[in-house]
């Protein structure tokens, strides 16, 4: 393979960008017709020698960038940190003499989008299939919980209300439950809501490993409980979570590991998951409260 000389007539076959690079001696002309410019299919192949300097991991990230993946997506799929991806991306740009993603794709994404590293590409495709399979399996084990109704509950000194309405959140129509009011300073005060659960969801709750929901709160703490037929007013298995004012959070409760027994009696009650019959949620501290929650799910 010979360097094209500046005044060679063959330059006319190439686009201005390729001619400029040839005159500077940065790229070579190959005899193989499938990797010729002409005006302009020079991208990945005409500068292929540069890609040979990439490490195996850089080659893998190279292909994913060619595929249009973002650094965050690459970090997720390869199970590495975002900073690690950024470091590899910087090294790739340096070795390939490009400044940004636009210049990278312009120079190295070939027409027809054929990978420079087919073996790595095949491995990447297998990884994607495994990821999709895992996600599909997880979705089958995660079910949205359905409730017949919600009812307000509280002590005689507190004020408590429940509102149920459909709202569009992040492009999805969700059934949102809002509890609000003022919890008294009474020693045994409580204020919130209890649920009447569909039988199918109840069966899922008997086997769930995780119970989750999204919430928009007011900065206060709230307590959830899963009453069973063994529990009484003085024996509950609870989970406490904090909210951030005007910020959506996801509450994930590992069952039964995250549940804490709170009791006013000496009874040694054990948590029997198959005997859950309700889900309750109420404010933890005295004072005004307001909590909206939705997208309740069980996961096995």
UniProtKB/TrEMBL annotation:
Protein name: HTH luxR-type domain-containing protein
InterPro entries: Sig_transdc_resp-reg_C-effctor, Tscrpt_reg_LuxR_C, WH-like_DNA-bd_sf
Segments forming domain HTH luxR-type: 47-112
This protein's UniProt keywords: DNA-binding, Transcription, Transcription regulation
One of the record's GO molecular function terms: DNA binding
Classification via Pfam families: GerE
Alphabetized PANTHER family for the sequence: DNA-BINDING TRANSCRIPTIONAL ACTIVATOR DEVR_DOSR
Extent of the signal sequence: none
Organism: uncultured bacterium contig00037
GO biological process: regulation of DNA-templated transcription
CDD domains: LuxR_C_like
Protein origin, superkingdom: Bacteria
């Amino acid at each position: 393979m010979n360097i094209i000389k500046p005044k060679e007539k063959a330059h006319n076959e190439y686009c201005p960008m390729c001619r400029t690079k040839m005159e500077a001696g940065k790229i070579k002309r190959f005899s193989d017709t499938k990797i010729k410019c002409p005006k302009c299919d020079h991208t990945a192949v005409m500068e292929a020698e540069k890609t040979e300097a990439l490490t195996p991991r850089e080659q893998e990230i190279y292909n994913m960038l060619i595929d249009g993946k973002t650094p965050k997506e690459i970090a997720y799929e390869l199970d590495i940190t975002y900073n690690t991806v950024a470091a590899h991306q910087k090294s790739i740009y340096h070795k390939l003499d490009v400044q940004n993603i636009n210049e990278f794709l312009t120079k190295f994404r070939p027409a027809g989008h054929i990978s420079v590293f087919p073996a790595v590409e095949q491995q990447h495709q297998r990884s994607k299939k495994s990821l999709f399979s895992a996600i599909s399996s997880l979705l089958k084990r995660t079910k949205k919980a359905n409730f017949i109704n919600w009812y307000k509950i509280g002590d005689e000194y507190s004020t408590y209300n429940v509102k149920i309405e459909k709202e569009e959140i992040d492009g999805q129509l969700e059934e949102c439950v809002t509890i609000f009011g003022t919890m008294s300073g009474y020693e045994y005060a409580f204020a919130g809501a209890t649920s009447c659960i569909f039988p199918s969801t109840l069966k899922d709750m008997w086997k769930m490993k995780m119970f989750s929901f999204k919430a928009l709160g007011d900065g206060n703490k709230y307590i959830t409980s899963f009453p069973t037929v063994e529990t009484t007013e003085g024996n509950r298995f609870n989970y406490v979570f904090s909210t951030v004012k005007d910020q959506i959070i996801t509450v994930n409760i590992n069952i039964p590991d995250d549940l804490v027994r709170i009791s006013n009696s000496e009874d040694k009650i054990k948590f029997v998951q198959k005997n859950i019959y309700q889900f309750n949620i109420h404010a933890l501290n005295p004072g005004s409260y307001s909590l909206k929650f939705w997208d309740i799910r069980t996961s096995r």
